[in-house]
Structure formats: C-alpha cells, structure tokens
Amino acid sequence: MKKELKFVVNGQTYDLWIEPKTVLVQVLRDELGLKGTKRSCDSGSCCACTVLLNGKAVKSCSILALQANGKEILTVEGLANGTQLHPIQEAFLDNWAFQCGFCTSGQMMAAKGLLDENPDPAREEIQLAMDGHLCRCTGYNMINEAIQDAAKRLQTQEEQGGAK
Ligand code: FES
Ligand code: FES
C-alpha cells in the first residue's frame, strides 16, 4: 500500500504517494526527473548517488525515500543559482576534476556537505569526507584540489558578502 511522502527538494515542496520500499534515488530520478543524481552500484559502495539530507551527505540508493519525509533534500540541480554555477562547480571545472562526469554530482554534493560544516578543511579532512567516492577516470588528486579551491572561493565570496 502506498504511503505519503512530503518533502522539500531543492527548495520546492513535493507531496507524493509511493511504495514504502522505494529508495530515495528512485524517487529523485524517476518521479521528480532529477537525473543529475546518478545510480551506479545500487549497493552503497560507490557514492555516485550522494545527495544532502538536511545538510548531511547520504547515499540515496541506500535509504528509503520515506526516511526523507518532512525533510529537505539538496541535489546537484539545486547547486547553481540560475545560470550562475556554484563555486564548487566552478572549482571542479577549473581543476579538471572530472572526465566522464558520472561520479561528479555525488562528489560535489559531498563537498558541499563538508564545506558547509567545515569551511576550511585540511587535506586529510577532505580525504576523509570523500572516502568511498569512487572515480574511474580522473584520479583523486584533482578532486581534492578542486575541493580546496572551492573552499577558498567560498571564503572569498563570504568576505565579499555574497550568497552561498
Ligand atoms: S549508487 Fe548509491 S552508493 Fe553506488
Ligand atoms: S569522472 Fe568518470 S567516474 Fe569519475
């Protein structure tokens, strides 16, 4: 029997009826059409499906959508401000931190969760936060550098009184 799911995704409120066993990534991709969240291993092993749930990075293939009831989700589609890319997106671009891009939305969402909590992370803290995010193309060095760069860009933005 379907259950009601009311939640906020990227600032927009949704009220859906879903099967209780539906995992969050299914709802995001198949019900809401937010295909930026990738589905890869489907077993909690790659982190490609990472989104923020009330500000914390979660693997959306590994939690039931109903666990998001009454909560807020941020996906990669919610990062940019209109046509203005988020500093994390700009830093990933400028540091060549992706190739095929399949892992990138999950990487960027984890980076956002980290930098919201810890605006000036040490390299080891970045590595710890990104542990488990598999990338088959780029090599992790450039991803770590992109996140350090994003931290600097966000700090500059903050000093200039800019938006998040
Ligand atoms: S698809 Fe969710 S962890 Fe791999
Ligand atoms: S950029 Fe291809 S898997 Fe990471």
How does this model look, in words?
The chain is of the alpha+beta class. The chain has two domains: 3-78, Beta-grasp domain (Ubiquitin-like (UB roll)), CATH 3.10.20; 87-158, [2Fe-2S]-binding domain (DNA polymerase, domain 1). It contains five helices and five strands. The chain has helices at residues 24-31, 87-94, 104-117, 123-129, 140-159; strands at 3-9, 12-18, 50-53, 56-59, 72-74. A five-stranded mixed β-sheet has the order 2-1-5-3-4, covered by helices on one side. The longest helix has 20 residues, at 140-159. It is globular. The mean pLDDT is 96. One FE2/S2 (inorganic) cluster is lined by residues 98-104, 135-138.
The count of β-strands is: 5
Portion of residues in helices?
Answer: 25-40%
Shape: globular
Taking Cα atoms only, what radius of gyration do you get, to the nearest Å?
A: 16 Å
Count of helical regions: 5
Blueprint of the fold:
Layout: E1 3-9, E2 12-18, H1 24-31, E3 50-53, E4 56-59, E5 72-74, H2 87-94, H3 104-117, H4 123-129, H5 140-159
Parallel strand pairs: 1-5
Antiparallel strand pairs: 1-2, 3-4, 3-5
Bound molecules: FE2/S2 (inorganic) cluster (2 copies).
One FE2/S2 (inorganic) cluster binds next to loops.
Task: Give a nutshell description of this structure.
By secondary structure, this protein is α+β, with helices and mostly antiparallel strands.
Question: Key features?
Answer:
alpha+beta; binds FE2/S2 (inorganic) cluster; 164 residues
